[in-house]
Every structure is written in structure tokens, then in C-alpha cells.
Design brief:
heterodimer, A: alpha/beta, FAD/NAD(P)-binding domain, 2 domains, 7-stranded mixed sheet, globular, B: alpha+beta, Elongation Factor Tu (Ef-tu), domain 3, 6-stranded antiparallel β-barrel
Amino acid sequence: MKTYDAIVVGAGHNGLTNAAFLAKAGLDVVCVEKNDYIGGATVSRNLYKDWWYSNCSYVCSLLRPEIYRDLELHKHGLQVTPYGGSVQFMENGDYYGSYHDHEVAYREMARFSRHDADAYKTYSADTMRQCRFIRDFLLSTAPDPTSLRPKDLMELARIGGKFMNMGEDRMYETIRFWTMSVAEYLDEYFETDVIKTAFSGSGIIGTALGIHSPGTAYVLLHHYMGDVDGNVGSWGFARGGTGAVSKAIAGAYQAAGGELRTESGVDQIIVRNGKVSGVALENGDEIQGRIVVSAMDVKRTFLTCMDKNDLPEKFHRRIENFKIRGSSGKVNIALDGLPTFPALPEGSSLYHSDMHFIDSMERMERAYDDWKDGRWSEDPYIDMVIPTLSDPTMAPPGKHFMSCFVQYCPHQIEGRRWTQEEKEAFGQTVINQIANYSPDFKDLILHAEIRTPQDIEDEIGITEGNIFHGELTMDQLLFNRPIPGYAQYRGPVDGLYMCGSSNHPGGGIMAAPGANAAREILSDLKRPNTVPENWGDD
Amino acid sequence: MKQGPVHQGRLKSPFFSRLEKLDFVNEWHEWKGYSSADQLYCSDTEYFAIRNATAVFDLTPMTKYRITGPDALDYLNRLVTRDMAKVRPGRVAYAVWCDDNGQVIDDGTIFHLREGEYRLCSQERHSAWLQAAAIGFDVTITHETEDVAALAVQGPTSYSVLSKLNLDGLGELKPFGLMHCDFQGTELMVSRTGFTGDLGYELWIDPDKAEALWDALFEAGELHGIRAIGTTALDMARIEAGYLAAYEEFLPADETVRTGVSRSPLELGLDWLVDFKKPNFNGRRALAEEKRKGSVWRLVKLDIEGNKEAHHSYIFSNAKASGSNIGFVTSAVWSPVCKQNIALGTVKTPHGKPGDTVWVEIYYQREMHWNRKMAKATVVDKPFWFPPRRGATPPGPY
């Protein structure tokens, strides 16, 4: 029986990225995927007639440009088109829009508060300073602060140096920032409720925390630190839907000679004499490999796909306590035409933007209260986009695909599985909230796919359907991600590695965990590194 | 000869009324006397209309000449470096023309409209040169810039858009092909040409029908993401396609003051456009000599590491920038579609062979302060952007 150099488990974007860099280094790699399609949550699915759904992840910004370029993803069909702005529809019939053109953005803010419009530039600089600080560490392994290895010491010194360079005032600010709530952070700059609400959404997306929970200021940063073509904080759509990202990475992987096997779910990672020897598939097959790299979240990897006896006791306990709570769902809709939003001027550029239907910090926090009670939010935070306004390939001309990211939505209802009725009621909550601002919306719906965290877990495999493979709070970031002592992509068993978003620097279609893990693996195997260096952000 | 005082101020293209309505930012520049938009609302979005949907660019100010007469072919063959006999009616050819020293005066496209009837389009105005070169030929050269309204319709959905105008034969039209068809009782010329390196067309019509054509086009394109664009977006696309621009990659030789600042076609990577097998043409002798002795300059396409655009950079043969520079960057852009930091440049031979590594000295500003970086660059020989759809016939909906 053939023995592969490496088996990568899970053909999501991180698994594929990892596999691609290993294959580029000349390793004999097989990437196994449980579904009959690749991409994991980075996927486009044809679920209704000629419509393609970005039915999990729906926008793109964090994908590391160094990886995009190095793997020549454009040659494998990837094209990321930026889109601009956002809008908050208000209960009083007004709306607050944010615009790509900074002068227009200023005027709109000044319509609510000249104070806020002028405060924005300081807010923006302060947030950008934090982005600059963190961006530099995305495409590198987090140093272990307890280690005396030269590599760790050097990286610690580099981070320390960057930190000291900020100067005393800003060092204090930075430390505060990493532990603050997004609401407190915004209060320091703005006075207008709807403007704060508009910014606060980024602080809770994918996180089982409310806008007043400590640590959410960092989550906001996580949504700001990406870029499209150097415009930091910009977001874009992958042409053809989000699946174009994983398709392109798979293209690069296969061009490097890698092998891809779908419908090959892993039942167990096999350990012999304290070392991994391969994987047993759900279909009974076994694949032998010198190393196994798991792109699954850490809970699924260690609690579901491994024998507890193969793992250190404390490690196992810590993985059990890893926070990966389901907090968001999706409603994906095929539309017969473009819904109108009478609050907006005709032809407004805001149709192309992120739309939200919540206008106060109070409503944001109340939405979280429902989740704590084990229910979905009656008045949810929805991040809605219509990518077909700029992407001609996802639906027939004149027809549209609408993606609604919905928060909060629990993994289970009051501790038990969702019923079909509850799932439909959840979908209806979302549709009703949008319909409040678009009278023709309901009549245009041709098909809707409602996805709770449980559905995402069942289909994709991510524990609790958590979009980041684990929450982005300080206790689970950098050298603490996923757990202290294991932040450098190596598992607790020889030959076992982790490359999913449970690892530094986390989720959001960055491809950085996959790439960083590949660099560590190649270093262990004494192979030349194929992973590109960070471009730096000076 | 027209009488009356000279027109003051900028000229307005026949599409101006339509462009004006779509203009949100009021950023215009002058192009051969006409008002031409830098951008209409946002150059980034406009760029992506080229690569993602359909972009419409007003190219009416492009200089146009009609060349007719029994000797039209012989005249053109004498004028330009490539063999025009191979360019059949219904075909379009990219061409350069040189002075007697083999230095490029301009580049442009020559449309073989009908047997013996041509249109020459160029960046610059060349009546004097074209007439001087016509001595001994029975040809008529008519300047027709104002008489033809022209639009570039470029991008992956451009075929879907134009299909809706029911233009006979559009599906069979190959790259560098042209056809005549009817538009509301007026002859419309459609060519599968452009300056973007993507699937795309150019439309040529009587200025009186310009607005009607625009309206029909935008109605047809409504569901296909049609957008009007300005020059900023177009220039990004042309660098990705590796196309030259006059005053960027070369200067018209007849306008240069200093010696050694003009370029020959061989120095611009256009060897394939110089046909020594055909009868005499302007610059032939000098070019043959250059081919024998070797050129001084070479145009390079550079794939530069990192993400800092290499505007106006010196190029060196080594990372330390020791010794004198070997050339400089002529056009640079971050390519959003290739996610590459790209540039066109001119370097002294023997440097700059495809596959060579050179070093680019990049200065960039961050919060008032200037930084310098020596970036490694690889010389590539293919265009940066060359999607399969560009050559597909019939094109798909993309």
C-alpha cells in the first residue's frame, strides 16, 4: 500500500493552501474531503436552477495577497472584485450610508453629526494603527513566549520592537484596545447611535459575544485588517461566488501534482507507537501517510477523529474547553429581480453595499440577549449583500442572488436540535426584517436556503458552525491559539499537524493558517520553504 | 476650408451629453482638444467593469484618417513596417511607422474597411507626415477624427451586451476582425479590437447617431453590468495587457529634441511587426542595420516583488544599485486582476532578456515620509493578463 508524504484532511481553503505549498515543495500529498465537493465553507453551490450560492462565506478581504500571488490564483480563475460602502436602514424611515468616496462619506456622517464626521479621521487612524501592528504577524507563526529557541526569541523581539516603537501613549492604547468591547471603543469617538451601530457590527460577526462584551474591539479589527488591492479594510466578491477561491487554490495544488479525493471523510486519525501513520476513512478505506495535517477545527480533529488515549490528558481537556460557539446563521435567497428599498434614492450606489436593518446599539445588544437564552434573535443583526449586482456569473441576467448573514443564531435551540418549524421561523424572521424596508422583496423570492449553525456543522463539519473555527478572543489568539503550547501548528502526537482556522491567525478566508502550517512542516521535514514571506506594511 | 473664429475651450464628443449624465466626480482632462474623463464615479469600480462586466469608453478623440485610392495598399506598405498585403478586407492590423532612421513616429491600428479602403487610427496627428510619405502614390488621405464617433465596449459580458443589438455576424467575428452592419438605418462598423487585452469590441458610427447608439447600448447592457469608464481605469488595463502608450513607452520620433530618446520598433519588442521580406518601407535600411548590429534599448515587462508601485523607478542590474542604472520604468501599476506588481520599462541591452532578474529602485511615501526599497523583478515575455475568452469565437456569456 502506498504511503503518502502527507495527508491533508479537509479540502477547505486552508487545507488546500497547506496541501498546495507542501506539493510545491515536492511532497507526495493527498487531500481528503468528506463532501462530494471541495471548499468546505469557502464554496459556491448550485442549489437552484442557474443560481450559484455563496452559501457559507460570502465576501473576501483577508485572503493574504502574498499567497494569492505566489500560487498565481488568477491563472486558476480567481478574480476578487471590490465593492463599497454599507447602509443602515432606520426605523424612522431614514438611513445612514457609508461610501467609498471619502468626501461623500463625510457629508453623510455630518448629516447626523458634524462632530462624528470630524472624529472619523482620528478613529480611522487609531484603528489603522492597530491594523498595521497585527497585519505584520498574519503570515508568520506566533512565537512561544515561554520558549528560549532563537526563532521564538527573535520573533518576540520583533513584536516587542514594533510595540515599543509606538511610543508610550499608544502602547497603553493598544493594550486597552485588545481587551475592550467594541461599544466602549466606539463611545470614545462617536456620539450618534446609528453611526456607532454601523461600525459595531464588525465587532460581533462570527462571535458569540455582544457589542458590550470585552474583546469585541479586536474582532472589529479582524474585519478591518484585510485589504483588496492594498485598500486596507476593503472587501470584495470572488467572481463566481466564494467557491472560486477554493477552486483556484485547488487548481494551484493540482498543478503542483497534488491529489484530491472527495467523498473521503476521515473516521479516525491513526496513531501507532506515538506517531501518526495515516487515516481511516468513513468508507472503510485506509490511507497511509508519514504526516497527517488536519484542516478541521480542533474540536472535530481531536475529540471526534482521534482516540482519546492517543492524546495527553490536559491537552484533551483544554480542547474540550476551546470556545467555538455557534452564533450565526445564513439565509441565501434566489431572487426574480432586484428588490427596491424606497428609503434609498433611485440608482443609489448603496444597493451595491452591505445592507443592515438595525439602527441602535440597544437593538444590537438585545439581539445578543436572545442568543444567551438559547433562541435566535427576534430582531437580528443581518449583513446582507447582493453580489449579482456586480457579478454576472452567479445568476441569469436581471435575476439576483442575495446572501444574508444573520446573527445571533444558536447552535441548538435551548440545548436541543432545531426542529424544521423553528428553522423556517428563523428564516421568516430574517425575511420579515428585510421586507420592512423593501415592500416588493417577498414577492421576488424564488428559493431560499436557511442554514442554522447546526446545518453548517452537519454539512461542512465545523463544530457548532462557528465561522472562525473558534472565537477570536484574547485567550484564544496568537500564542494562545488554539491552546497555549500548541500555537505553532504541531499537534501533541508526532507527525500530526493542524492547519485550520482554529490556529493563528484565525478564520475569515485568510489562507494564513494553512500557509503558516506548511512552513513549519517543511522546516520539520528539512525541505526548502515554499511559503512566501510577508510583504510588510511599511 | 471652414471660416470663422477658432473654437475656444474644450471640444465635446458626440457622446458628451451621455457621459455628463453619468459623471459624479467632475474629473476631466484634455485629449486632443476634447474633454475626456479621468473617471466618472470611481476608477476602481470602472476598472472592474473592464475585467468583470462591460466597460464603455469614448474614443472619439482618437486621431483617424481615411486612406483610399488605387495605391492605398502600396502606400501603407511603404508607410508601416509590417506587410499590409496580408491584411485582408475585414481585418484590422496593429502597426508602427518609422522615420528614415527607423525610429518610431507612432503606433496605431489600420482597419481594412473594404477592398482598397483603409482607416488608420493613432494617438498623434500626422497629416504632414502622411502626406509627405504619399509622394508618388495615387492615394487620398482624409482626416476624419470628427466624422466618426467611436466607443470601446470591453469586458467579459461585452458579447452578451452587443448580441442584444442583433448585429448579424457578431458571433463569428474573430479578434482583429471588423464588420459592417445596420444600426437604425445607419452603417455601424464593429471591430473586435481594444486596448484592454480582454474580450471586447469597438463601435464606429456617424456622429449624428452617436447618442442613439449609446442609448441602445446602455439599454442592452443594463442587466450585464455595463458602465462608462474614464482613462484611469483604461490605462490600468492596458498595462496589464502589455500595450504601449505614446509618451509613456516611446516618444514620437519627429517631436524629439535630444538624440537617443526615441525608440525603434525592435527596441519596443515589436520585431514581429517588422517585415524585411516586403518591398521598401520607411526606416527599412536603418532597421536592417540595427538588427545586424543589435539594439541599444529593450522594452521589458516586469513582475516586481512586493506591492509598492514602481512609478518612475530606475532599474539596476544588482540589488545594491552599484554602478549606473540600466534603464527606467515607463508605466507601473498594481494589477488588481493578477494581484501582481507590474511595470513596463526600458533597459539597455544586453540586460532585460525574458527570465532575467533586475532590481527596481522604488520610492514610496507613507505619512509624508519617503522610503526606498530595492525590489527584485523578473522580466516576463507574455502579457500579464491574457484570458482565454479574449480569443474565443464565438465568445460565451462569461
